[in-house]
C-alpha cells in the first residue's frame, strides 16, 4: 500500500520531538488567539512569519497550520461562554451555544463543539489525502498555459467569492500583481519599480506586505472604537454531553463537515461562510426550526464541524496545486516560498516528508486541541480579562521587530509602516485585502508562465484554448465573472452574507 | 441620497486605484515592451497598470452614481501614533540598541490607545524589552546590541 507507506512516513516526521513541539506551540497559540477577540489567525500568522524563517520548512508549516485550525476551536469557546465570537467563523455558534450556556448546559455545548470539530478535522484531513494525491498527479501534466489559466481562475474565484464588491476586489488583485512585480525581472535583469533603492532589488518583502496590510491596519481599525469588553465568568457545569446529545449532534456534524469541506476547497470562501451555510441547512432540515436560537445542539455541532472542515480542506489546493484559496493559505504558501520550496504539484513528489508530515501533524494537532480545550477551558476564559491596551503594543512590537530581523534592514521596518497606512485606508474604503495578497503571491508565477506559454507557441494566443485543460479553466473563470454581473445571482450572494 | 465627496467610499477608492495605475504606467514606459512572443520587462506592468486604471474608473463612476458613504470614523490619531512608533523603532534599533527601541515603540504605540496609564505602560515596556531580548537575542541568537550609541 503506497498511501499507507506515505502516511507512516508522515507520522514519522510529525512525531519527531521538534515537530511535535511546534505542532503543540501552533495549536496552543491558535487556541489563545481564537479566544482573544480582535486577534485573528491572519494577524498572528503574519506576525510570526519572520520568526518561522529560521525553522525547517516542515516545522514552520506544521506550526502555522496549527495556528489556523486551532483558532477555529478557540473561537467557539468564547462564543459559547460569553456570547463573543473569538473568530468571525464562530459567530453563528453564539446563537445556540450561548443559549445552551444560559440554560446551564455550557459543558455539553463545549464538549459537542470540541468533538464535532475533532470529527470534522479528521475527516477533512483524510480528504486532503484522498483528493490531494490524484489532484497532484493530474496537475503534473499541466503545461505553462494550463498553469496560467489555473492561477487566473484562482484569482477570479477569490475576487468573486470574497465578501464585498467585485470591482474593488479585482482592482486589489491587479494591484497585488503589480506589487509582486517590484524588483529585478528574472528574464531581463531590469529592475522594476525599485526607485533606485538597492533594498527593493529583491522585491517588496512578503512579510513586509503581509504584516502591514493585515496586522498593522487591523490594530488601527480596532483602536477606532473604545474597548467594550465585558468580562464575566460563570460555572461551566459537567463537561460530559448526554448520550442523547451525541445522537442528536451526530448527523449535523457529518452534514456540517460535508458543507465545510466543499467551501474549504473553493477559493475565496473560508470557514466563515461554511459555518453560516451549515447553520442555515440545519435550520431548514429541522422538524421544529423554532428550537434554533434557543439552545439547539445541532446549531452548535454543524457550524463548528463546518468551520473546522473548511480550515483543513483549504490546504488541498495550496499543497497540491500551489494555488492558495484564502489569504491565510497565501501566507502559508509565502512561508514555503521563503523557505526555498517551489510550490506546486511537484511538492508531493519532491519533498514527500513535507506534505505527509504536515498531514500527519493535523491528526495529532486535532487530538491535542481536544485535550487542550476541554479540561483547560477555565484558563482560556480567564484570558479574556487581558485588556486590548496591553495586547496591541505587543503586536506592533512583533510586527516591527520581526520584519527587522529578516534582513536586519531598517528600510523594511519603514516600508511596513507605510504599507500599514495603505492597508488601513483600503480597509476603510472596503477594499478587501485578501485578493491583494493572492495577487502578490501569484503574480511572479503568472508572468513566468504566460511568458513561457507564448514563447513556446510563438506568440499564438490560441494556445490558451487549444489545450483542453486551459480552455475549461478559462471558461469557468469567464462564467464566474459573468454570473456576478447578472443581478439575480449577485442579489443572492448579498443575501447569503446578510443572513450571516 | 447625497454624500459629500470626502466621505464617498467608492469614489475615493477609485481615485486611489487610478492614481496608482497611472504611476505604475508612467514608470513602466521606461521598460521595453517587447512583443507577445518575447515579452519585455515592460509588458506585464503596462497591461496591469491599464487594468488597474480601468477598474479604478469603474469604481469611481459607480461611487459618484450610488454615493455609498463610508462607515465609522477615520482613526487618524491612532494611525499616526502606530505609524510613528514603528518608524521610531526602525530609527532607534541601530542607533540606540534593542532595549531603548522596544521601549520607544511600546510608549508611542500605547499612546494610540484610548487610555494611557503611565505606570502600566512603563511596566509593559520593560516586560516587552526583556521578552524581546529573550526571544530574539538569547533564543534566535540575533546579534543585536541591547544598548548602543551610534548617532
From TrEMBL, chain A:
InterPro entries: DUF112_TM
Keyword Transmembrane helix: yes
Domain DUF112 span(s) in chain numbering: 20-438
Keywords: Membrane, Transmembrane, Transmembrane helix
Pfam families tied to this protein: TctA
Transmembrane segments: 20-39, 45-69, 108-132, 138-161, 166-184, 204-223, 321-342, 354-381, 388-406, 469-489
Source superkingdom: Bacteria
Listed name of the protein: TctA family transporter
Organism: Bosea psychrotolerans
Automatic annotation (TrEMBL), chain B:
Domain spans labelled DUF1468: 12-145
Keyword Transmembrane belongs to the record: yes
Isomerase in keyword set: no
InterPro entries the record matches: DUF1468
Transmembrane regions listed in the UniProt entry: 12-31, 43-61, 73-92, 98-114, 121-140
Coiled-coil parts of chain: none
Protein name from the UniProt record: Tripartite tricarboxylate transporter TctB family protein
Source organism of this protein record: Bosea psychrotolerans
Amino acid at each position: 500500500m503506497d498511501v499507507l507507506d506515505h502516511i507512516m512516513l508522515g507520522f514519522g516526521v510529525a512525531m519527531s520531538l521538534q515537530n511535535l513541539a511546534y505542532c503543540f506551540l501552533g495549536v496552543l497559540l491558535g487556541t489563545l488567539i481564537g479566544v482573544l477577540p480582535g486577534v485573528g489567525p491572519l494577524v498572528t500568522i503574519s506576525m510570526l512569519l519572520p520568526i518561522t524563517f529560521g525553522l525547517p520548512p516542515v516545522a514552520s508549516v506544521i506550526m502555522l497550520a496549527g495556528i489556523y485550525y486551532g483558532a477555529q476551536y478557540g473561537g467557539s469557546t468564547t462564543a459559547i461562554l460569553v456570547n463573543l465570537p473569538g473568530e468571525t467563523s464562530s459567530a453563528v455558534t453564539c446563537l445556540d451555544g450561548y443559549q445552551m450556556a444560559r440554560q446551564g448546559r455550557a459543558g455539553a455545548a463545549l464538549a459537542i463543539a470540541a468533538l464535532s470539530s475533532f470529527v470534522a478535522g479528521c475527516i477533512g484531513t483524510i480528504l486532503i489525502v484522498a483528493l490531494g494525491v490524484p489532484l497532484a498527479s493530474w496537475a503534473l501534466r499541466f503545461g505553462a498555459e494550463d498553469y496560467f489559466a489555473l492561477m487566473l481562475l484562482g484569482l477570479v474565484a477569490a475576487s468573486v467569492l470574497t465578501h464585498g464588491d467585485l470591482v474593488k476586489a479585482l482592482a486589489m488583485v491587479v494591484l497585488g500583481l503589480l506589487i509582486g512585480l517590484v524588483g529585478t525581472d528574472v528574464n531581463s535583469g531590469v529592475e522594476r519599480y525599485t526607485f533606485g533603492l538597492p533594498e527593493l532589488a529583491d522585491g517588496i518583502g512578503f512579510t513586509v506586505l503581509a504584516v502591514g496590510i493585515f496586522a498593522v491596519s487591523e490594530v488601527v481599525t480596532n483602536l477606532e472604537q473604545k474597548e467594550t469588553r465585558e468580562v464575566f465568568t460563570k460555572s461551566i457545569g459537567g463537561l460530559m454531553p448526554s448520550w442523547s446529545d451525541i445522537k442528536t449532534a451526530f448527523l449535523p456534524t457529518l452534514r456540517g463537515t460535508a458543507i465545510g469541506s466543499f467551501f474549504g476547497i473553493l477559493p475565496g470562501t473560508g470557514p466563515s461562510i461554511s459555518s453560516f451555510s451549515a447553520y442555515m441547512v440545519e435550520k431548514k432540515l429541522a422538524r421544529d426550526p423554532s428550537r434554533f436560537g434557543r439552545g439547539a445542539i445541532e446549531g452548535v455541532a454543524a457550524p463548528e464541524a463546518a468551520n473546522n472542515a473548511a480550515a483543513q480542506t483549504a490546504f488541498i489546493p495550496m499543497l497540491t496545486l500551489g494555488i492558495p484559496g484564502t489569504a491565510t493559505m497565501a501566507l502559508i504558501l509565502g512561508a514555503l516560498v521563503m523557505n526555498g520550496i517551489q510550490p506546486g504539484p511537484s511538492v508531493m513528489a519532491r519533498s514527500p516528508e513535507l506534505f505527509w508530515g504536515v498531514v500527519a501533524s493535523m491528526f495529532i494537532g486535532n487530538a491535542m486541541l481536544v485535550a487542550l480545550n476541554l479540561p483547560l477551558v477555565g484558563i482560556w476564559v480567564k484570558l479574556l480579562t487581558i485588556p486590548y491596551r496591553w495586547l496591541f503594543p505587543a503586536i506592533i512590537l512583533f510586527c516591527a521587530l520581526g520584519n527587522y530581523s529578516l534582513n536586519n534592514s531598517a528600510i523594511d521596518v519603514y516600508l511596513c509602516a507605510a504599507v500599514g497606512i495603505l492597508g488601513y485606508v483600503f480597509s476603510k474604503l472596503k477594499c478587501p485585502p485578501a485578493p491583494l495578497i493572492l495577487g502578490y503571491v501569484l503574480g511572479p508565477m503568472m508572468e513566468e508562465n504566460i511568458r513561457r506559454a507564448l514563447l513556446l507557441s510563438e506568440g499564438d494566443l490560441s494556445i490558451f484554448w487549444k489545450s483542453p485543460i486551459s480552455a475549461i479553466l478559462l471558461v469557468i473563470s469567464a462564467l464566474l465573472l459573468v454570473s456576478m454581473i447578472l443581478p439575480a445571482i449577485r442579489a443572492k450572494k448579498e443575501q447569503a452574507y446578510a443572513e450571516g | 441620497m447625497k454624500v459629500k465627496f470626502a466621505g464617498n467610499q467608492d469614489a475615493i477608492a477609485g481615485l486611489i486605484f487610478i492614481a496608482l495605475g497611472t504611476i505604475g504606467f508612467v514608470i513602466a514606459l521606461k521598460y521595453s515592451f517587447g512583443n507577445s512572443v518575447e515579452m519585455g520587462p515592460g509588458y506585464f506592468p503596462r497591461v496591469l497598470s491599464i487594468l488597474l486604471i480601468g477598474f479604478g474608473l469603474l469604481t469611481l463612476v459607480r461611487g459618484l452614481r450610488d454615493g455609498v458613504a463610508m462607515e465609522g470614523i477615520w482613526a487618524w490619531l491612532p494611525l499616526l501614533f502606530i505609524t510613528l512608533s514603528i518608524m521610531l523603532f526602525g530609527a532607534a534599533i541601530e542607533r540606540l540598541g534593542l532595549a531603548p527601541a522596544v521601549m520607544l515603540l511600546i510608549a508611542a504605540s500605547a499612546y494610540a490607545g484610548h487610555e494611557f496609564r503611565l505606570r502600566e505602560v512603563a511596566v509593559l515596556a520593560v516586560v516587552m524589552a526583556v521578552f524581546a531580548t529573550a526571544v530574539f537575542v538569547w533564543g534566535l541568537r540575533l546579534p543585536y546590541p541591547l544598548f548602543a550609541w551610534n548617532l
